[in-house]
């Protein structure tokens, strides 16, 4: 660890009243103290704003209220601009984190590490809490782009800690309805020197019925996602011709099959099982 560097936790909030208290409480209870929690309400209509206002008096919390609905991508970009920390973490407002979420990841940082990643737990109702009392092991690597193309890298933003300087001169993906996290991670990995992955499950991902990932993977989402995959392929094929082609074919194939089996009444994990049955 290179010192007591500040971490900015960015939470984009939109109509997650039922889960928001749990999310914010888990951030306030972090064992690592040098944090700021940036809560940005994106014009919620369900009372989420009132919950944010309730917590806004806490010194480590910055409460921001969008004047119009910007969507999660632009809201996150706004959070990055506001952030004063040397490190950035993203937490979805319907999820929550272990009390050592930041402490364990920031503890892996040195001058050459730009991204730290933890494991996560996916749940749809209740889940037993993992007991994290020590680091369970870690892996350090500098071949992150190859791992990404080999599909051995988590494409989500919410299970990671990013050096803020990575976001300089990065265009946040806009007008993308599905796959924006994947494209942004690819852009960040191109600038990243080293990644540390710890084995602890520190992030709790709520697979709720009315979330974006529970809605049907329709044709509109499919073409948005394929567009993202094609952009990554075009950018990487010169340096990694075999891996890039495999990445393109595999991602597009899975997306097509996923679209065929997608069902709004099933959880994401159930839909993935359907895809595997076909394959």
Structure characterization notes:
It is a single chain. This protein is α/β, with parallel strands linked by helices and 279 residues long. It contains 9 helices and 9 strands. Helix 1 links the parallel strand 1 (7-13) and strand 2 (35-41). Helix 1 (17-28) packs parallel to helix 2, helix 6 (180-191) packs parallel to helix 7 and helix 7 runs antiparallel to helix 8 (241-261).
What structural category arises from helix and sheet content? alpha/beta
Instruction: Please state roughly what percent of the residues sit in beta strands, choosing from under 5%, 5-15%, 15-25%, 25-35%, 35-45% or over 45%.
Output: 15-25%
**Helical percentage:** 25-40%
Low-confidence region ranges:
none
**How many strand elements?**
9
Report the span from N to C terminus. Answer: 44 Å
Please give the count of helices.
9
Query: How would you characterize the largest beta sheet?
Result: 9 strands, mixed
What is the helix/strand order?
EHEHEHEEHEEHEHEHHH
What Rg, in angstroms, do the CA atoms define?
18 Å
Shape: globular
- What is the residue-mean pLDDT, rounded to a whole number? 89
């Amino acid at each position: 660890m290179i010192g007591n560097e500040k971490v900015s936790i960015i939470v984009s909030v939109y109509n997650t009243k039922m889960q928001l208290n749990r999310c914010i409480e888990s951030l306030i209870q972090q064992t690592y103290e040098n944090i700021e929690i940036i809560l940005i309400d994106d014009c919620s209509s369900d009372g989420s704003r009132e919950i944010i206002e309730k917590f806004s008096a806490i010194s480590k919390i910055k409460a921001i209220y969008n004047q119009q609905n910007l969507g999660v991508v632009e809201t996150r970009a706004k959070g990055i601009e506001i952030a004063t920390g040397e490190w950035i973490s993203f937490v979805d407002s319907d999820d929550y984190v272990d009390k050592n979420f930041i402490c364990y990841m920031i503890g892996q940082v040195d001058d050459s590490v730009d991204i730290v990643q933890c494991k996560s737990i996916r749940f749809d109702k209740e889940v037993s809490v993992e007991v994290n009392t020590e680091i369970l092991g870690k892996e350090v690597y500098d071949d992150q782009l190859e791992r990404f193309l080999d599909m051995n890298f988590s494409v989500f933003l919410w299970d990671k800690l990013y050096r803020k300087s990575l976001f300089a001169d990065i265009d946040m993906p806009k007008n993308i309805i599905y796959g924006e996290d994947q494209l942004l991670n690819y852009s960040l990995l191109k600038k990243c020197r080293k990644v540390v992955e710890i084995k602890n499950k520190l992030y709790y991902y709520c697979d709720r019925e009315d979330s974006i990932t529970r809605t049907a993977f329709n044709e509109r989402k499919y073409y948005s996602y394929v567009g993202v995959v094609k952009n990554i392929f075009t950018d990487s094929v010169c340096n990694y011709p075999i891996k890039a082609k495999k990445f393109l074919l595999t991602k597009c194939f899975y997306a097509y099959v996923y679209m065929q089996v997608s069902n709004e009444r099933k959880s994401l994990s159930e839909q993935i099982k359907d895809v595997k049955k076909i394959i």
